[in-house]
Design goal:
- It is a single chain.
- The chain is an all-alpha fold.
- It is built from 3 helices and no strands.
- Helices cover about 70% and strands about 0% of the residues.
- Helix 1 packs parallel to helix 3 and helix 2 runs antiparallel to helix 3.
Length: about 70
């Protein structure tokens, strides 16, 4: 799911603006799920590891969508 952000990041860096809402929501979603996995009494590592890429890729996509890099 998060690999689909890579072409959007490249497009954003080339000067084509993307929609920042969806990657922002994905970033927030992945952050909440990661926190949930870490805050459980018995850590839920599969949830944590599955959502960490979404935090970084969602943030990168959001940042490149709102700033003009091209």
């Amino acid at each position: 799911m998060y690999v689909s952000y890579i072409p959007q990041i490249i497009s954003n860096l080339s000067g084509s603006k993307g929609n920042p809402i969806q990657p922002l929501v994905a970033f927030i979603n992945c952050t909440i799920w990661t926190a949930y996995g870490l805050l459980k009494k018995e850590k839920d590592w599969p949830i944590v590891w599955a959502n960490i890429p979404g935090i970084f890729l969602g943030a990168a996509t959001f940042i490149t969508a709102i700033f003009n890099f091209g």
